[in-house]
Amino acid sequence: MDTQALQAALPEYFAPWVQELGLRVDGSTEDGVTLRLPQDARLSRAGGMLCGQAMMAAADTAMVLALIRHFGAFRPCTTVQMNTSFLKPLSGQDALVQARVIRAGKSLAFGEIDIRGADDGKSACRCTTTYALL
């Protein structure tokens, strides 16, 4: 599945407010997807820091795209668990959201997401996720 097909999945499978994040597929590998979350004042809190809610939404979206990439097509799924650790503030730059499928079975899938600054490469947020495959 190429970058264009993954980008086309955003308006097809995600709510309009998720599309408002402006996510762009930056690349993909056999086990994952990287999205770019553009810096935007609407997603920032005091001091220009990217808000946690935007990071978590971007992480969840990236993992669903990674699952689409993994399976070669969309499979209905739902987030069962998302554990998020915010490591440092992210401001003044786009965020790169790298999602990787760790294991995908018949009924559950597990993944990891790293969100880092696009300019400095420093990790700002890490997530682990579990999805039920419906």
Describe the SSE topology.
Blueprint: H1 3-13, H2 16-19, E1 24-29, E2 32-37, H3 52-71, E3 77-86, E4 95-104, E5 108-117, E6 123-133
In words, what does this structure look like?
The protein has 134 residues and is an alpha+beta fold. It is 26% helix and 40% strand. The protein has helices at 3-13, 16-19, 52-71, and strands at residues 24-29, 32-37, 77-86, 95-104, 108-117, 123-133. The protein has a 6-stranded antiparallel beta sheet with strand order 1-2-4-5-6-3. The radius of gyration is 14 Å and the shape is globular. The model has no long low-confidence stretch (mean pLDDT 97).
Task: Summarize the model shown.
With 134 residues, the protein is of the alpha+beta class.
What key phrases describe this protein's structure?
40% strand; Thioestr_dom; single chain; Thiol Ester Dehydrase, Chain A; six-stranded antiparallel sheet; alpha+beta; PaaI family thioesterase; hydrolase; 26% helix; 134 residues; fatty acyl-CoA hydrolase activity
Helix content: 25-40%
The CATH class name reads: Alpha Beta
Strand content: 35-45%
Instruction: Note poorly predicted spans.
Output: none
CATH superfamily: Hotdog Thioesterase
